[in-house]
Write a structure and sequence with these properties.
By secondary structure, the chain is an alpha/beta fold. Among the domains are: 1-25; 26-168 and 383-402, Rossmann fold (3-Layer(aba) Sandwich). The protein is built from 14 helices and 19 strands. It has a nine-stranded mixed β-sheet with strand order 15-14-13-7-12-9-8-16-17, covered by helices on one side. It has a six-stranded parallel β-sheet with strand order 3-2-1-4-5-6, with helices on both faces. A two-stranded antiparallel ribbon has the order 10-11. α7 (144-157) packs antiparallel against α13.
């Protein structure tokens, strides 16, 4: 038996002896979440919430839940997390979420997770298996398989869940959907989504120097399930989004915000195919700019609209769709951070980032007056989840972006990175959504991906030494869809 299992057995034995002694003394102390059965917390109670990854967005999410009990804080980098530690001085502090769950499992009702993308699935899955409600930052997961896994796990465990794409709870997203479904732009025929991200460096090669690991950082825990590499400040605490092993680039960062109004309004399912192009893509990090096209099949009628085949195009890194007919000269498409647009047979609708401020071209001063048939979120995105946590799972109104919705949606978002990383195949990739498989890659097909693109300047002329890795495309696709984890890590 390994040391970890021995420690767990000792811990479980100690808890059993303690509880047995309490019962023998004639005292029965039952955790409040057990009183109403698994997954139940009295609506009048405060949740006991733990934060995992609290240095950035995790801190912001917890501040939205300040009326609840923040009982534990976990972060691999205690310097970056110090502000959150200062917010809740009574909360117990941890670096390893597994130790936190082992030691405080009975005292935690719910967890808020805002770690780097590559550790979303493992932290969420372990929490859910212990019956903890989960608020998980976007993108929901690093891979397609992980999204499918968490979707199914949410059904099995019955815990309350929410992905951190806060625009989904906003008024704009709901108006966008209601106007489209009411036929205000006719039948949708194409869609476009764009962002000004990345606002961090991408297209990077792996750093060669190996500086000392800061004393406040547990580097091995940061690496988590990813393949081990040496520490460098280019990876954390901020720029991890750029690196394929840790993040999902600009598409993963903002796709769950910007594509959401379109996916929600049209009630989309799996695309049937996709393809991508970008600035130079390498083996280490996401490209500086990219374009991904998703092809969705025809679907049945929705409210007042038909849903013919739809082409949805994603742009980032400064790329933009063509300006639509009728848009006023000088008017920003969406807002300065990005936006989404659906072109229909009768008109075009546009919204800003997070679904904000939707309008139909030519009707800016005369917006549709449709019935508000989609339920509104009266509180914040975070507190909508808190409310769901406090309801019995048998009578719960799920939070607005619960995993039953956000899991399938996130599959679509992160598959865009498949399109970009496999673009050297030079073809549209056919997608079997049920089986999570690209169906038109041959066993012997290969892709060439840049490993280094260093150059020297000779007499004012840059001389590049571009080198490539040749990779089996089918094996690469399988690994992008379902990752292999480092030894000691699993879902």
């Amino acid at each position: 038996m390994d040391k970890k299992n021995k420690d767990l057995n000792k811990f479980s034995r100690r808890k059993f002896i303690s509880r047995t002694a309490t019962v023998a003394a004639g005292i029965s102390i039952v955790p409040r979440h057990v009183l109403g059965g698994v997954g139940y917390t009295s609506p009048s109670d405060k949740l006991n919430i733990a934060g995992i990854g609290v240095g950035g967005m995790g801190r912001a999410n917890l501040r939205e839940m300040a009326g609840e009990n923040i009982v534990a804080l976990c972060d691999v980098d205690w310097k970056y997390a110090q502000r959150a530690f200062n917010d809740y001085p009574q909360a117990k502090k941890f670096k390893d979420y597994r130790k936190m769950l082992d030691e405080m499992g009975d005292d935690i009702d719910a967890v808020v997770i805002a770690t780097p993308d590559h550790t979303h699935a493992v932290t969420a899955a372990e929490s859910m298996k212990m019956g903890k409600h989960v608020y998980l930052q976007k993108p929901l997961t690093h891979s397609i398989y992980e999204s499918r896994y968490l979707t199914e796990l949410a059904k099995e465990t019955g815990v309350a869940t929410q992905m951190g794409n806060q625009g989904h709870s906003g008024e704009g997203t709901r108006l966008f959907a209601e106007w489209i479904r009411n036929g205000e732009i006719g039948d949708p025929i194409e869609a476009h989504c764009w962002t000004n991200r990345p606002i961090w460096p991408q297209g990077l090669e792996r750093p060669e120097n190996e500086p000392a690991i800061p004393s406040t950082l547990d580097w091995d825990l940061f690496i988590g399930p990813a393949e081990y590499r040496s520490y460098h400040p280019a990876y954390t605490p901020w720029n991890w989004r750029a690196w394929w092993d840790f993040g999902t680039g600009a598409l993963g960062d903002m796709g769950c915000h910007i594509m959401d109004p379109v996916y929600f309004a049209l009630d989309l399912d799996h695309p049937k195919a996709f393809e991508g192009s970008s600035s130079q893509v390498n083996t280490e990090s996401a490209p500086i700019a990219e374009k991904v096209i998703y092809y969705f099949p025809e679907q049945s009628k929705l409210n007042k609209i038909n849903r013919p085949e739809l082409k949805l195009t994603w742009y980032d890194g400064g790329l933009m769709p063509e300006r639509p007919e009728g848009i006023k000269p000088g008017k920003v498409l969406g807002d300065n951070d990005g936006g989404a647009m659906v072109v229909g047979t009768k008109g075009t609708i546009i919204c800003g980032t997070y679904g904000r401020n939707p309008y139909i071209i030519g009707r800016e001063d005369n917006p549709p007056q449709t019935n508000k048939v989609i339920p509104r979120v009266e509180t914040s995105h975070e507190m909508d989840w808190v409310r769901a946590c406090k309801e019995s799972k048998n009578n719960r109104v799920e939070a607005s972006s619960h995993f039953g919705y956000s899991g399938p949606f996130n599959e679509v978002v992160v598959m865009g990175n498949l399109a970009v990383r496999l673009q050297d195949l030079n073809k549209k990739l056919n997608w079997d959504g049920k089986n999570m498989k690209i169906t038109n890659i041959g066993e012997s097909e290969e892709i060439k991906v840049v490993t280094t693109d260093k150059f020297t300047v000779v007499d004012g002329d840059p001389k590049f030494n571009t080198q490539y890795a040749t990779i089996n495309a089918q094996e690469a696709a399988e690994q992008y869809i379902k990752h292999n984890y480092r030894e000691g890590w699993k879902l």
